[in-house]
Design a protein that fits this description.
Length: 140
Amino acid sequence: MKKDDCIFCRIAAGEISSDTVYEDDDFRVILDLNPGSRGHMLIIPKEHYQDIYELSDECGMKLMAVAKKMAVAAKKALKADGINLVQNNEEAAGQSVPHFHMHVIPRYKDEAERIVCWNPKSSDPDEQAAIAEAIRSELG
Ligand code: 5GP
Ligand code: ZN
């Protein structure tokens, strides 16, 4: 279902213009308006899903095939040295547009910045075991 007040629904439907890289029945892939790197793309499902919790398994599986297609094309076309796939869910994770989308971000060896990063910390084996058990038990 399309949501009339959702900007990505409207972009995906072609009601708002975008630099479209690829389109099929299920997705539109566009250049990000504020790119983190040259060729930063967004894969937008035409169906409205707010985030990964709502995303259908079928759409998620199709999306990964599109992500691969875009990664291979960007690597060749832009001579990228690497590709990050990034997908944010909820404000705490940096989601600013509440319509599921995946970032495909070409990376270049000469970039000064590292835009996808976290600070690795050492882990405690007991705590790790408890965390793994908590997640496993939720899966049932
Ligand atoms: P998020 O932070 O939700 O993971 O990513 C949203 C992305 O959408 C941002 O990188 C932002 O630059 C991009 N964006 C927001 N509005 C528009 C728009 O109207 N057109 C395009 N092409 N990109 C947009
Ligand atoms: Zn939407």
